Amino acid sequence: MQNSATHLVVMGVAGSGKTTLAAALSQRLGWDCAEADEFHPQGNIEKMSQGIPLQDEDRWPWLRQIQEWMTGEAEHGRSTVLTCSALKQSYRALLAGAEGRVLFLHLDGAPDLLSERMSGRVGHFMPPTLLPSQLATLEPLTQDELDAGSLRLDIAQSPEELATAVVAALKLPVTH
């Protein structure tokens, strides 16, 4: 029997609005929500706080922990909304190995808008100086990912417009 849980991974570079959209979707759908940043080991947080970009060897254990969390939620019959940069297709492939259906919602936008949003954030360990390295690392969703139901979303739209579009496109059951 296939697991009926769905995991919506709200992805994109820093400043794209992942947390805001994930919160809106979680509230509308009544699904648990998690921030991938909460899964980072202290060493990763220290690197990013110092303006040092993470390397793949820093990311793989973090991504495995996120995948294990999603699988655990699915095994208990719970669908989830998760924020995660998921910048590379290989990272998304690892996350897609979680139990249940995993869909990626790529928040995409102009670098100037992203930089402006990052500059306005307070209390986040990711400095705006790391945006260029994130943009250089970002691999857009593949056609196979899009064909499987993942979506590319334009951050010029409001979070409410994006949440409405996601719910409609994926035909998700709204509870609130």
TrEMBL record:
Tell me which domain of life the UniProt entry assigns to the organism this sequence originates from.
Bacteria
Q: Name any GO cellular component annotation.
A: cytoplasm
One of this protein's GO BP terms? Answer: D-gluconate metabolic process
Q: Which reaction does it catalyse?
A: D-gluconate + ATP = 6-phospho-D-gluconate + ADP + H(+)
A Pfam family it matches: AAA_33
List the GO molecular function terms.
Answer: ATP binding; gluconokinase activity
This protein's pathway reads: Carbohydrate acid metabolism
Which EC number applies? 2.7.1.12
Q: Which UniProt keywords apply?
A: ATP-binding, Gluconate utilization, Kinase, Nucleotide-binding, Transferase
Family matches, as PANTHER family: GLUCONOKINASE-RELATED
Instruction: Give the UniProt family note.
Output: Belongs to the gluconokinase GntK/GntV family.
Name this protein carries in UniProt: Gluconokinase
Recorded source organism is: Arthrobacter ulcerisalmonis
